[in-house]
Amino acid sequence: MQCEKMEKMRILALDGGGIRGLYSLRILQLLADDLFPKLDLYRDFDCLSGTSVGSLIVLSLLHKLPPSELITVYSTLGRYIFQGSNFFSGRKKSQAKYGSRHLEAVLKKVLKADLQVKDIHDKFICIPAVELKNETTGKWKSKIYHNFAASPYANTPLIDIALRSCAAPGYFPAHENCVDGGVFATNPALAAFSTAIDPEMGARSVDEISILNIGTGDNPSFIDENIDWSRTRWVQKHPTAGDAPLISMTVDLLADFQAYPLQLLLKERFCRINSPLIEQIEMDDYKKAAELIESADQYRKNHPKEWQQKLQWIEEHICQ
């Protein structure tokens, strides 16, 4: 059964970014605290959309778990998820850096194992992934798991959807022929918007939609040299561009650029929060959990006027 149509569509869209999802969670916690009791993260959004770690967060919110509890869970279990890299686990160099066993165990700890898309009746969901070979086209294809009208995913377990959306190439193995939705939608806001206005799915008008889009923190990454790199060098560590500059650059720029058309289309009905991180943090660096929390706290503390504008926007466009 699909979710019933609502009068307006308020979308929460959470970017992908691995352990950096702790920044997103802290921002959500601060928003909920500062707007209590006006803002209820479960009640006040009609559609929950997330890519990669964003999918883990929105599916956790479906279970009505508060951000404070999720911060504790992911801060504690981040070490467990990003454990056993190739060097220490005996995994081959040709394999993903991590196995998915620990990630799946964490998901089963947080989510109900038997919950399927058809069990969600009072919220819409929108979660991007990539199918490595589509049965119809015979080639790879972007995929958006949803419960709008005519959804073919009614019997799909939510845990499997999360594992598909989180299977970051090079970091985790593909799950059931799918990899991370961040390949095309690091920022899921545009995917959620497109699904919501599609006449065969959401069938909503643009004027009905408001989107709160939260990133995973803006990494201070750059390359200050006129480079001439091989394909191999582009995925090797660089002091100011991260462990794999090509991946870091693609993920960061995709997230920001996908917000741009929504800013033009929705104008005052689109709000993005994604402040600079206090230092460069890789998507699997679980040791930097405290720095991610601090980055969110510093944004709120050091930019009070901008923060108040975000709170006012949420009161006007999201709160019931």
List keywords for this structure.
7 strands; 7-stranded mixed β-sheet; single chain; alpha/beta; 320 residues; 11 helices; globular
Structural class: alpha/beta
Oligomer: single chain
Largest sheet: 7 strands, mixed
Ends: how far apart?
25 Å
Strand content: 5-15%
Word description of this protein:
The chain is an alpha/beta fold and 320 residues long. Helices cover 39% and strands 12% of the residues. Strands 1, 2, 3, 4, 5, 6 and 7 form a seven-stranded mixed β-sheet that branches. α1 packs antiparallel against α3, α1 (21-34) packs across α10 (289-302) and α2 packs antiparallel against α6 (158-165). The longest helix is centred in the C-terminal third of the chain and has 22 residues, at 245-266. The radius of gyration is 19 Å and the shape is globular.
Quick overview:
The chain contains eleven helices and seven strands. Helix 1 (21-34) links the parallel strand 1 (9-14) and strand 2 (47-50). The chain has helices at 21-34, 53-62, 67-81, 86-89, 101-110, 158-165, 182-185, 189-197, 245-266, 289-302, 304-317, and strands at 9-14, 47-50, 124-131, 141-146, 178-180, 209-214, 270-273.
Question: Which SSEs are present, and which pair or pack?
Answer:
Layout: E1 9-14, H1 21-34, E2 47-50, H2 53-62, H3 67-81, H4 86-89, H5 101-110, E3 124-131, E4 141-146, H6 158-165, E5 178-180, H7 182-185, H8 189-197, E6 209-214, H9 245-266, E7 270-273, H10 289-302, H11 304-317
Parallel strand pairs: 1-2, 1-6, 2-3, 6-7
Antiparallel strand pairs: 3-4, 3-5
Helix pairs in contact: 1-3, 1-10, 2-6, 3-5
